From TrEMBL:
Keywords: Hydrolase, Signal. It comes from the Bacteria. Residues 1-18 form the signal peptide. Coiled coil: none annotated. PROSITE patterns: PROKAR_LIPOPROTEIN (PS51257). Residues 22-43 are annotated as: Disordered. This is Alpha/beta hydrolase. It comes from Pseudorhodoferax aquiterrae. The lineage of its organism: Bacteria, Pseudomonadati, Pseudomonadota, Betaproteobacteria, Burkholderiales. One of its GO terms (molecular function) is hydrolase activity.
Length: 479
């Protein structure tokens, strides 16, 4: 396995800078942001001490009702911990996705919970102490729970040895949390620092703030094609109906002629021509949420104080029409980020932690091809960042033929997790997909290698419906 010496040296350098003040030795207080004043978040079940056992399934070899299950509140965040009686000494931290802007904090069980119990893994999950797109809180609270694992177990009457191995997995925003938590930057700047041995980010925001660049690019190109290119981005509501009717007769599944051009732009913004892009629009429903976030001021709803979005690097492409592409690029509004909107902090992690590609542990990612909300291009961005840091040996990526956001089968997730663990335990580097070669990604069978359409007892009805729609369309890998 690749030496971790370069990672250790980078961490040592970062720690040395921090000890010296990082070159910034003034005592100016850190600025605050709207998110800092949101203090009314309350766990959904603040007095819970346990949670329901997983219902047994015919395939179980271990009774899921015999696990130790602890719930509680740590640092304002609700948590759940589950430890099988035959614990294998390994801990899996689960990071859930975006939970909205409400005040209620909820904990999500990992989708591979049954597998973890059957294989002897302990798992733990935090609600995080705040909602909104607060990845900083997600990393800190997940790490804090991992650090408290043994003390919580002892307090509940079960003495456990420290975990021999700790892994982190997560979906969507939780994929961002997963990827950020293992970065060298997080290891040197987080207030709660925890060392993981492997990670599986799924449908993750692996390009961190570049996701919001995509949202803005999708808006300004829609406005340009609909004839209102210079309408201020934050004033989307004033032109929303006009733009929608110009591009769709039935949003988003029935585009007009202009809408067809627009969807070509979106395809190229989200990863290029690939199988299931069309189903992601028509069936997956993952593009409608993108339309719903138009009109942002670029602060990610008060996570930042200034605009972080930037569209200046984009070249918009309408396939087969270079003249229309040139006109669109000339007309589309250019949005420029405020310098240092998401700068390094002196009091901990950045407000939106980065995924710089500075990794030194096995990482296996999953992404569905039809995902337009957190698009497949996130994988391409991450691959390039990791490669630029010289860390490609630590990354394996897998494309799944799903039509929407995070609609993996449990089998696909289990296989990715197993591959990561076997790799981390000294096995061969597992197989993955090339996510950046355009001709490879555009191939009709792309994504078939790691797609598993067989449904198990823990698969959601939504996943079943989407896989049925894929099969009906003829895009399934299964004959």
């Amino acid at each position: 396995m690749q030496s971790m010496r370069p990672l250790f040296l980078s961490l040592l350098a970062a720690a040395t800078l921090a000890a010296c003040g990082g070159g910034d030795d003034d005592n100016t207080p850190e600025d605050t942001r709207p998110q800092d004043s949101r203090n009314s978040f309350v766990p959904a079940e603040p007095n819970a001490t346990t949670f329901p056992a997983l219902a047994a399934a015919p395939s179980d070899t271990v009774d899921p009702g015999t696990t130790s299950r602890w719930a509680g509140v740590l640092g304002g965040a609700a948590y759940r911990i589950e430890v099988p009686q035959n614990w294998n000494g390994r801990l899996v931290m689960y990071a859930h996705g975006y939970a909205g802007t409400g005040n209620t904090l909820g904990v999500s069980n990992p989708s591979i919970r049954r597998y973890l119990i059957q294989q002897g893994y302990a798992w733990a999950a935090s609600s995080y102490s705040k909602n909104y797109y607060d990845v900083r809180a997600g990393v800190e609270d997940t790490n804090a729970l991992a650090l408290a694992f043994n003390s919580i177990a002892t307090a509940r009457g079960r003495t456990l040895s420290p975990p021999q191995r700790s892994y982190i997995i997560g979906h969507s925003m939780g994929g961002h949390i997963t990827a950020a938590a293992i970065e060298a930057e997080a290891q040197s700047t987080a207030n709660n620092r925890y060392r993981y041995h492997g990670a599986v980010p799924m449908c993750g925001v692996l390009g961190d703030t570049e996701l919001f660049d995509y949202f803005t690019a999708a808006q300004v190109t829609a406005q340009a094609l609909a004839g209102v290119p210079q309408q201020p981005v934050a004033q989307w509501a004033a032109v929303s109906a006009q733009v929608t009717s110009a591009l769709f007769t039935n949003f988003p599944s029935a585009p007009t002629a202009l809408g067809q051009s627009y969807l070509s732009v979106i395809q190229n913004l989200t990863g290029g021509p690939r199988p299931l892009f069309g189903l992601g629009v028509a069936v997956g429903g993952s593009f409608a949420p993108v339309w719903g976030v138009f009109g942002s001021d670029g602060t990610v709803n008060g996570i930042l104080n200034a605009n972080v979005t930037d569209t200046t690097r984009f070249t918009y492409v309408i396939d087969g029409n270079p003249t229309a592409s040139a006109a669109l690029n000339a007309q589309a509004q250019k949005v420029t980020a405020t310098p240092d909107a998401n700068r390094l902090r002196r009091d901990g992690l950045r407000w939106i932690p980065k995924t710089n590609g500075e990794i030194g542990i096995p990482v296996v990612t999953l992404h569905t091809l039809g995902d337009l909300y957190v698009p497949f291009s996130m994988e391409q961005i991450y691959q390039r960042r990791v490669a630029a840091k010289g860390n490609s040996a630590w990354l394996v990526q897998r494309a799944i033929r799903g039509a929407s956001h995070c609609d993996f089968t449990v089998a696909e997730q289990v296989e990715a997790f197993e591959a990561m663990v076997q790799w981390e335990q000294g096995g061969a580097r597992p197989g993955g997909d090339d996510v950046v070669t355009a001709t490879t990604v555009a191939a009709p069978t792309y994504g078939c290698t790691y797609t598993r359409d067989t449904l198990g007892p823990d698969d959601s009805s939504t996943t079943a419906q989407l896989r049925a729609a894929i099969a009906q369309s003829g895009a399934s890998c299964t004959p």
